[in-house]
Amino acid sequence: MIVGGLATSAMIAAISTDWHRNKAMPIWLCWLGYVCAVVLLGGVVFIPMIAMVLWAIVVGVVLLSRGAKASAAA
Fold first, then answer.
1. What does the chain look like in DSSP terms, one character per residue?
2. Which residues of the chain register pLDDT less than 50?
C-alpha cells in the first residue's frame, strides 16, 4: 500500500505538471493535483488514499463538462 501511494503521488504530480505546462486544464485543477500528490505521500495510512479518489472524481467531472462544451460548440 505504501508503494502504491508513492506511485500514485508521482503519477498525479506528473499529470498536473503536464497540464500546467500545456495549459490543457484549468489552473485550479493543476494545483489540486499538486496538493493531492503531497497528501498521498503520507500513504502509510488509509485516509490519504481518499485524496486519489476525490481527485479522480473532480478530473472526471471537469473532463465531462469540457466535452459537453466542445460538442455544443460544434
1. -HHHHHHHHHHHHHHHHHHHHHT-S-HHHHHHHHHHHHHHTTTTSSTTHHHHHHHHHHHHHHHHHHHHHHHHH-
2. none
- Would you say 9 and 41 are in contact if contact means Cβ atoms under 8 Å apart? yes
Quote the cell numbers at residue 68.
459537453
Rounded Cα–Cα distance for residues 58 and 39 (Å): 16
Q: Could you state, in order of their start, the residue ranges of all structural domains in the chain?
A: 2-73
Cell of 40: 498521498
Residue 45 to residue 54: CA distance in whole angstroms: 16
Predicted TM-score (pTM) of this structure: 0.76
pLDDT of 26 = 93
